[in-house]
Amino acid sequence: MKVMILGGDGYLGWPTSMHFAAQGHEVLALDNYLRRKICFDTDSNPLVTRPTMPERSILFEEVSGKKIETEAVDLCDYRKFESIFKDFMPDVMIHYAEQPSAPYSMRGYEEARLTLQNNLDVTFNAIWAVKEHNPNCHIVKLGTMGEYGTPNIDIEEGWIDIEHKGRSDKFLFPRQAGSLYHTTKVLDTDLIWFYVRTYGLKVTDLMQGPVYGVATEETASNDQLESFFNYDDIFGTVVNRFIVQAVHGVPLTVYGKGGQTRGYLDIRDTLQCVYLAAMNEPDAGTLNIFNQFVETFSVNQLAEHVQKVSKSLGLDVEIKSVPNPRKEMEDHHYNPAHSGLLELGLKPHYLTDDVMASMIESVLRYKDQIVTRRIMPRVSWK
Amino acid sequence: MKVMILGGDGYLGWPTSMHFAAQGHEVLALDNYLRRKICFDTDSNPLVTRPTMPERSILFEEVSGKKIETEAVDLCDYRKFESIFKDFMPDVMIHYAEQPSAPYSMRGYEEARLTLQNNLDVTFNAIWAVKEHNPNCHIVKLGTMGEYGTPNIDIEEGWIDIEHKGRSDKFLFPRQAGSLYHTTKVLDTDLIWFYVRTYGLKVTDLMQGPVYGVATEETASNDQLESFFNYDDIFGTVVNRFIVQAVHGVPLTVYGKGGQTRGYLDIRDTLQCVYLAAMNEPDAGTLNIFNQFVETFSVNQLAEHVQKVSKSLGLDVEIKSVPNPRKEMEDHHYNPAHSGLLELGLKPHYLTDDVMASMIESVLRYKDQIVTRRIMPRVSWK
Predict the structure, then answer these.
(1) Which of A378, A39, A48 minimizes the C-alpha distance to A226?
(2) Which of A44, A272, B103, B209 is an S-S bond match for B379, by CB 3.0 to 4.6 Å?
(3) Over the Cα atoms of chain B, what is R_g?
(4) What is the distance, to the nearest Å, from the Cα of residue A79 to the centroid of all Cα atoms in its chain?
(5) Range 313-342 of A in CB contact (< 8 A) with B
(6) Residue A162 and residue B152: Cβ atoms within 8 Å?
(7) A164 contacts in B (CB within 8 Å)?
(8) CB distance A116–B113 less than 8 Å?
(9) Are the CB atoms for B346 and B295 separated by under 8 Å?
(10) What does the alpha-carbon distance between residue B42 and residue B36 come to, in Å, rounded to a whole number?
């Protein structure tokens, strides 16, 4: 199968590129290095610097014998996008090419506008390239569980049947996100669903929760192939922040009450999910939506888990609450469905003590490179 | 009150500018003439050419003694937008500045992209100018009834309470539009609601149905002040198309089965509604949504009405069905609520035989200027 990966240099884009190549597919990875540029601009470099796409591609070929084609390109430019699409003619297009940081999107006008324009433009261009040149190409789009926000009702997988005044219809499940970044993914979903139902396209939209981990099957023989580990307030998730704080010997900072609950998954499960999604293409005119996570934790539960495992490794860890820089509910109902990918065959990896310990140990190796000022929030919603 | 009107040269923008000025408000009308440019580019000029903003402003001052300030500016440019906003410091901002043609938005890549970018950018810039420089400024945004599409349940005014598995919450009423243009207004609503709830802005979003008529109280003494009458497939609505076909002596063209039902209103009622909305500002952090129309008709009912009134004026009119260039339901449930604006004091004008006759008579005066090739659809959804 020919697989075109938009955002192929990203935290998930590169591991995905290797995973599809390892299974024998022909992979073209595209990226404009926007994430790396934002890391420079905001002093948010990852703990370990990673090679560029062509460098990674060479390293991967050495260990696997498989080739990954790469190209540095801004996919907001439709004429370039179209020309690459027509040359490669993918069977599947996996779309990660979005500015993925919530705090960055809330920083100021320029950052917000870049997020809105980049994310909508790439999605729009992806739709048009497919619609104009190969409507059979299956688009696998990465959305986020954050599109749903934290409603007071159970979250279904993408869709909901509404009964109202004696009549009923099926709609996209209501979406109400907590940052501009997450809101751009809501707009993506609206836009995609319009074009899918109007032109009979085939799209799978994956509502993914926060992902942890940097190592996958494909990185086993060379850790330079591992993905980015960001622990800063821009690209770092709460799991990474807690691990770095534990290693660095500062208290784990819980934002507000810590009841914020989300659905998490291991990076190896992202690869499984995206692969399963790609292999199960919807009928023309159908938008398949899956909720992509394997277990839910509150921020307090995560902090306690990091504390417990750190202790077993000889680290003394405190937990403290700090004012929440975000505007979000800190204590809420959260019961999202997530059976779709399990039914397709997903075999979950859970966040066990062993998995947690191995993540802490891998950060311990780079303890001296931790930059303290990156750990605390520098962007506020207020 | 200081009133800034975005899209002040448009079909509704100019009449709105005059209406607020006539009530003694200080009005600044802004426009980049995008609608006129698209009319040129697509051979869709209105039946009668209208003066530019500064010319209209002079004519209006002659008949009313009231001044309307105007400026030609592209509001996609945030630095210009911001500087004008800070100089004028409006109490109310009325936002019409969107590419409003559904067929244009479905024509090809360039037209679709222009529609998406222009509409989102102006909305985004309006939000940011207000948020950064005067969060008390009330934004009155023109949405469309087309955001809702034609669901199989009754349409409420903007919001819906959903009961699901024993729990309940309130959400934006599900939106599912029939063209890219209408979809950009769905995205606007998502974007606005995010910023309203996050930063405590005050916004009224008006879900407006198709508007007919060009004459208002303010145009009584000089018909050069009347609005654009477009009868082409790009900017003309079904009402205008039928009237022109009746006058021109060709059959009224019903798209498909003709059961397509929408909520219509007289341009004088748009002015009332927007004025009432502006005078009733929401609390900070509240998004007020009203459904703005006064009565519903199917396309068949409209055709029969035009036929009947034309006959009374001595015109012999046929009705014929043509293949539908759009993708839409031609026979559907349609029961939208619209009590909000009536409760604020709206006194509706209905589409009586007299109103219809006066619209037909006004087109009869320009019968010789009708360009036949503009009447039939030139853009298809398929």
Answers:
(1) A48
(2) B103
(3) 20
(4) 27
(5) 327, 333
(6) no
(7) 153-154, 160
(8) no
(9) no
(10) 10
Alpha-helix residue ranges (DSSP H) falling in A12-101: 13-22, 34-41, 53-64, 78-88
pLDDT the model gives residue B2: 98
Mean of pLDDT values over A19-37: 98
Tens of pLDDT, residues B331-374? 999 999 999 999 999 999 999 999 999 999 999 999 999 999 99
- Give pLDDT, residue A90: 98
Structure tokens at B266: 């007289």
Distance CA A356, CA A363 (A): 11
As a whole number, the mean pLDDT across chain A is 98
Residues facing B159 on adjacent strands = B172
Percentage of the residues of chain B whose pLDDT score is greater than 90: 100
Residue B382 is predicted with a pLDDT of 84
Residue A357, phi-psi category: left (phi > 0), alpha (psi -120 to 50), beta (remainder): alpha
How close, in Å, is residue B110 to chain A by CA atoms?
10
Please report, to the nearest 10 degrees, the dihedral formed by the alpha carbons of residues B93, B97, B101, B104 taken in order. Answer: -160
For chain B, the structural domain boundaries read 2-374
Write out the two tokens for A308.
Answer: 């417990």
Q: Which of B122, B190, B199 to mutate against chain A (most A CBs within 10 Å)? A: B190
Lowest mean pLDDT among A343-347, A373-377, B202-206: A373-377
* Interchain proximity B160–A164, CB inside 8 Å: yes
d(CA B158, CA B172): 6
Q: Are B120 and A124 in contact (CB < 8 Å)?
A: no
Which pLDDT tens digit goes with each residue over A295-326?
999 999 999 999 999 999 999 999 999 999 99
Q: What is the mean pLDDT of residues B246-254?
A: 97
CA distance B359 to chain A (A): 35
Q: Which of the residues A125, A153, A155, A333 would you substitute to probe the B interface, choosing the one with the greatest number of B C-beta atoms within 10 Å?
A: A153
Give percent of chain A above pLDDT 70.
100
Q: Which residue of A has its CA nearest to B174?
A: A171
- Token pair, residue B161, equals 């309470």
pLDDT score of A382: 84
State the best of A119, A190, A381 to mutate against chain B, taking most chain B CBs within 10 Å: A190
Structure confidence by residue, pLDDT tens digits, B4-33: 999 999 999 999 999 999 999 999 999 999
The reply to whether residue A153 touches residue B160, judged by beta carbons under 8 angstroms, is no
Question: Homologous superfamily of B2-374 in CATH?
Answer: NAD(P)-binding Rossmann-like Domain (3.40.50.720)
Predicted structure pTM score:
0.97
Q: How many CB atoms lie within 10 A of CB A201?
A: 23
- Residue in the structure block whose two tokens are 């002079």: B58
Average pLDDT over all residues of chain B: 98
Distinct helix (H) and strand (E) counts, chain A: 12, 14
